[in-house]
Amino acid sequence: MEFIELVIGSFAKLLDPATLAYVVAGFLIGTVFSAIPGLTATLALALLLPLTYSLDVTTALMACASIYMAGMCGGSITATTINIPGAPSSMMTALDGYPMQQRGEGALALGHASFGSMVGGGLGALLLILLAPLIAELSLLVKTTGKFSLIAFAMIVIVIAQRGKMIKAAMAACIGLMLATVGLDAMVPVTRFTFGLSDLTAGLDLMPVIIGTFAISEILIQAGAMSDSGKVASALSKVKAIRRRDFLPSFASIRKIGLGCYLKSSLIGYFVGTLPGAGGSMGSFLAYVETVRTSKDPKSFGKGNPQGIAASESANNAVCGGALVPMLTFGIPGDPVTAIMLGVLVINGIQPGPQLMAEQAGLIAPMLASLLFSAVILIPLTLFLLGPYFIRIVSIRKDALYGAIALLAVVGSYVATYSMFQMIMTLVMGVLAYYLRKHDFPVITLLLGFILGPNLEEFLRRSLALSNGNPMTFFTNLDSLFFVLLTAVFVYFLVIRKPLKNPVAAASAT
């Protein structure tokens, strides 16, 4: 109850004009980045990460939370109007949103997407606020061996969640783990893999890795891709003028979708979000398929059924609340955005883990308040006020846009560290991530391997030291054994039992 009271009291911070301005600005930036195909909220956070140095940590986390929520719902704009999902989590929305657009009901489809996002995001944030303190207390029962098994479980799940490219995901994760070993040994005062360079004594800074992996590599990818401006212009020419009142779905249509659809999809999204590496795309897919399975008219899906939009958007926004659970309580990011938010915490000297909710709850409560505020207030408000203009975002010239992004990325990496060496490392990481992405390696596993690597190594060495080198300690301690068995369950269901390889095609076929 004390933590809930802290969250309620944190809404008062939104009355401060400066704080509210950062939250609203973060939401608009997240919406713009997620609405432009090729850009994501992850890239927006990576670019804005250096700016958090000039903010106090509370305001920075509140702005990050609003970007996160906006990044999940913003992709539905172009997914509905021009059939180009602005974010991976919106690909299921396009199945029914675009057919509604072709019928002249595009604004109504966006209204249903906004309402579903509001319900899912709000419910996910509420569940996070209610359950996070309880999960934090339970996490105190996890000892050293259990922490190693937990991080190993997270790494394995993140790898096997990359359907169809698990070997490449494992290789990328190993590269991240290798990069994490550069610098001073955490337990013995010796340097490793510095190759005589004094600049590497402290290891690789998190900032260059994040900016290089997501921002620089994205610029290189887009520079080498063929322009889709003709396709976008053709799609835009078919979009009719949209009025603000067209976004408001009727109460009767919401009743027809059903409260059960919103709640079930939100719960699916929330619990999928708690799984490391699952992400909004998996949450929206599972919710969509479940809605089709239980529908009385499954053949109407993929042809403009608002229930499909509601299920997809409720789930992918509920993922936001779920993904923050492992990040706050165990320091394990649930997806790329929470990985960068973890970076914000670490940069500001805050170590996520079981003690965070007890010792520094005052820093976390405002972030959760901002997440709830963004879902319930900013999602419907910004779509109603700015919806008619959002579709024009995609007409921005890509050469000017990516030139500005490149400048922000390089300058930001230098401002964050004031080190020419680390700025060069940003470019090196960008080129490395570019070649990995060109060959279909998921770079998210590289980043999570780099972030989780130090803790994985530390808890492994401590566990073996406490057991005199006996590896059976991971099977004889109950907390560790629980995560070992959980890993086996996930490997069975995600690897041995062959999963659906093409979620969109499977849902369309259904």
Would you kindly provide a written description of the structure presented here, covering whatever features stand out?
The longest helix is centred in the first third of the chain and has 34 residues, at 106-139. This protein has a two-stranded antiparallel ribbon with strand order 1-2. The chain is mostly helical and 510 residues long. It is globular and about 65 Å long. The protein is 72% helix and 1% strand. The chain has one domain (1-225, 244-498). This is Tricarboxylate transporter. Pfam families: TctA (PF01970). Residues 20-448 form the DUF112 domain.
Oligomer: single chain
What is the straight-line distance between the termini? 44 Å
Write down how many β-strands occur, each being a DSSP E stretch of 2 or more residues.
Answer: 2
- Proportion of β residues? under 5%
Looking at the structure, what is the overall shape?
A: globular
Structural class: mainly alpha
Number of domains: 1
Transmembrane segments: 20-48, 60-86, 107-132, 144-162, 169-188, 267-289, 363-390, 402-435, 472-495
InterPro entries: DUF112_TM
Pfam family, one: TctA
Keywords: Membrane, Transmembrane, Transmembrane helix
Secondary structure blueprint with pairings:
Blueprint: H1 2-10, H2 17-35, H3 41-48, H4 57-81, H5 91-102, H6 106-139, H7 144-160, H8 166-180, E1 183-184, E2 191-192, H9 206-224, H10 229-237, H11 251-257, H12 259-273, H13 279-294, H14 306-330, H15 336-347, H16 356-359, H17 361-390, H18 398-417, H19 420-438, H20 443-466, H21 473-476, H22 478-496, H23 503-509
Antiparallel strand pairs: 1-2
